[in-house]
């Protein structure tokens, strides 16, 4: 081993091809092999043997090309094409170039591994008729709860329903002139809807895991997402026609139907009375309460403030302190009266 | 030096070598020659490209010029002008000026990104930035509608002006949706066009709603 290393180490310092001879052979064979590619995938450092070997091989080849070109140019630099003048300029540039290529390759490999949206592609594989059928089905409670009902694990419909809900919420907030301080209307709407969809789905999935229900996360997201169809209809109607009694009717009927459907599907997939009760009670409560919250928090709060300024109690849903001169002066008067009475 | 006789190159090749190598080393200079042109030429070239794309949006025909050389200058200009015009439109100007600009900006860009991802997930063949480019350029009719609404509101804010604004905004919304659908829906399988058109419809509907409910202070 000593005799083998010495000729390689003690010789030229500009062309270490002999030292890397073994790896070069590997590189030639492994260029198209999947096995060596898989090994390279785990490599996060920039100085793996294969890459260094490849780099040096390419540098050597390009030096030889440059050498031929410059030798063709003739003049006194015939014997000096590997001289220090040529090396300093060309070598530095090529090393930088090779480092850039290696870095780019590894970055694109990492990107294609982690930021691959193809992971989500199977969940978007739907036809428009399927989406329409599922939308209508989400309002029809199933009768057969002894047999596990099929849930389609699809994300296109739920995502579009969440965005529609965001648009409807925005419309409701604009018509009631809700002013949100320290934030934007759009941010609040998006945060509320997505927070409900993702947060309640995760929570219900966790509960389902505890209660041994047969449901996956994507199915839970899909079920809850399609349940928002009832919310969309209710809010779309009641944000435009302002009768509280109409809202309560819609809340019970439309909200109730979609809740019944979700509950029936969950019950069909759970065993045991206590577990069924826990799961369905939680889901029904959260679903109905969300609709109630969306209606009251974002809609015509002005009426609420003006109505209750007569009595001493302020309403619980005081989401916005609307800064109208009339209201603020009325509030000021009431407070002044209250303070005067206590003194 | 007898060994060098083998190494030396024949008389023909140096001539070829001298001709090819200098040309090879001059080509980076040719690429950089656009650095030497006057700034006016660069700006005019970019402005002409943006203007051509505006014309394509206003008269949507099946041309691929909008898709081939995408650029995001037009969408940026349109988005900023729309956001500026939508400012100052509610009760308190002191704490609502900021969020409204950010709102419009975020809605347009976030919405465009979501629609692009959606169309890619549904099996579209169009690239990310091409789709962003098309969606951004198709905001042009709505920007024109905003201008018209502002001018109408200068004259008064009664029922007649509301009806005029409604008609204008609805017409421009339809134009925007049709224009962007003409470019984007072609890249989808034929039976799934409705799945791609719906988010675009929702996106321009939200923007139109913001324009229609704008009331200056």
Automatic annotation (TrEMBL), chain A:
Biological classification of the source: Eukaryota, Metazoa, Chordata, Craniata, Vertebrata
Keyword Plastid: no
Principal localisation: membrane
GO cellular component terms, A-Z: Golgi apparatus; plasma membrane
Region (Disordered): 1-81
Gene giving rise to this polypeptide: Yipf3
Transmembrane regions listed in the UniProt entry: 155-173, 185-211, 223-242, 248-268, 277-298
Family: Belongs to the YIP1 family.
Biased composition (Acidic residues): 62-80
Organism annotation: Sapayoa aenigma
Stored InterPro entries: tRNA_Mod/Golgi_Maint (IPR051521)
Entry membrane topology: Multi-pass membrane protein
GO BP, sorted A to Z: cell differentiation
Protein keywords: Cell membrane, Cytoplasm, Differentiation, Glycoprotein, Golgi apparatus, Membrane, Transmembrane, Transmembrane helix
Name of the protein this chain belongs to: Protein YIPF3
Compartments it resides in: Cell membrane; Cytoplasm; Golgi apparatus, cis-Golgi network membrane
Function (record text): Involved in the maintenance of the Golgi structure. May play a role in hematopoiesis.
UniProtKB/TrEMBL annotation, chain B:
Chain ranges of the Yip1 domain: 57-210
Keyword Transport: no
Entry's localization field: Golgi apparatus membrane; Membrane
GO cellular component terms attached to this protein's record: Golgi membrane; trans-Golgi network
Keywords linked to the UniProt accession: Membrane, Transmembrane, Transmembrane helix
Residues passing through the membrane, by range: 70-89, 101-122, 134-156, 162-184, 196-215
Location (main, coarse): Golgi
Protein name, entry field: Protein YIPF
Organism the protein comes from: Sapayoa aenigma (broad-billed sapayoa)
Upper taxonomic lineage: Eukaryota, Metazoa, Chordata, Craniata, Vertebrata
GO BP field: endoplasmic reticulum to Golgi vesicle-mediated transport
Membrane association type: Multi-pass membrane protein
Family listed: Belongs to the YIP1 family.
């Amino acid at each position: 081993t000593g005799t083998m290393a010495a000729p390689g180490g003690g010789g030229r310092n500009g062309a270490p091809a002999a030292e890397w001879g073994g790896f070069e052979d590997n590189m030639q064979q492994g260029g198209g092999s999947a096995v060596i590619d898989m090994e390279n995938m785990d490599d996060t450092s920039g100085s793996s043997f294969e890459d260094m070997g490849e780099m040096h091989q390419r540098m050597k080849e390009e030096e030889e090309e440059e050498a031929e070109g410059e030798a063709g140019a003739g003049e006194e630099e015939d014997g000096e094409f590997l001289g220090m003048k040529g090396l300093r300029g060309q070598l530095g540039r090529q090393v930088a170039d090779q480092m850039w290529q290696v870095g780019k390759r590894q970055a694109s490999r990492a990107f294609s591994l982690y930021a691959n949206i193809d992971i989500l592609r199977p969940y978007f594989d739907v036809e428009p008729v399927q989406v329409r059928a599922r939308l209508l089905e989400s309002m029809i409670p199933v009768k057969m709860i002894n047999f596990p009902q099929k849930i389609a694990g699809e994300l296109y419909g739920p995502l579009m329903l969440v965005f529609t809900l965001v648009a409807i919420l925005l419309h409701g907030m604009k018509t009631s002139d809700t002013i949100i301080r320290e934030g934007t209307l759009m941010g609040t709407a998006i945060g509320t809807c997505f927070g409900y969809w993702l947060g309640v789905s995760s929570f219900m999935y966790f509960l389902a895991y505890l209660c041994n229900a047969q449901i996956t996360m994507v199915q839970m997201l899909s079920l809850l997402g399609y349940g928002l169809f009832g919310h969309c209809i209710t809010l779309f109607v009641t944000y435009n026609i302002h009768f509280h009694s109409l809202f309560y009717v819609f809340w019970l009927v439309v909200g109730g139907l979609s809740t019944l459907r979700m509950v029936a599907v969950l019950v069909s997939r759970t065993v045991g009375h206590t577990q069924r009760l826990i799961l369905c009670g939680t889901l029904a409560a959260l679903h109905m309460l969300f609709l109630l919250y969306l209606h009251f928090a974002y809609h015509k709060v002005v009426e609420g403030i003006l109505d209750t300024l007569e009595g001493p109690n302020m309403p619980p849903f005081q989401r916005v302190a609307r800064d109208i001169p009339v209201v603020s002066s009325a509030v000021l008067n009431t407070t002044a009266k209250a303070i005067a009475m206590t003194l | 030096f007898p060994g060098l006789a083998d190494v030396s190159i024949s008389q023909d090749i140096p001539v070829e070598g001298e001709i090819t190598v200098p040309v090879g080393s001059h080509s980076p200079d040719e690429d950089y020659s656009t650095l030497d042109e006057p700034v006016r030429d660069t700006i005019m070239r970019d402005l002409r490209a943006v203007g051509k794309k505006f014309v394509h949006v206003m008269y949507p025909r099946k041309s691929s010029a909008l898709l081939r050389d995408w650029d995001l200058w037009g969408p940026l200009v349109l988005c900023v002008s729309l956001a500026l015009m939508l400012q100052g439109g509610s009760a308190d100007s002191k704490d609502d000026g900021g969020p409204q600009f950010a709102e419009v900006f975020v809605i347009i860009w976030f919405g465009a990104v979501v629609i692009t991802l959606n169309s890619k997930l549904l099996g579209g063949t169009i690239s990310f930035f091409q789709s962003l480019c098309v969606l951004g350029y198709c905001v042009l009719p709505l920007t024109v509608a905003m201008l018209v609404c502002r001018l109408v509101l200068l004259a008064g804010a009664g029922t007649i002006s509301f009806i005029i604004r409604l008609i204008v905004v609805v017409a421009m919304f339809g134009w925007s949706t049709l224009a962007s659908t003409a470019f984007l829906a072609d890249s989808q399988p034929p039976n799934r066009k409705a799945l791609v058109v719906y988010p675009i419809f929702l996106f321009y509907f939200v923007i139109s709603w913001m324009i229609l409910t704008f009331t200056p202070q």
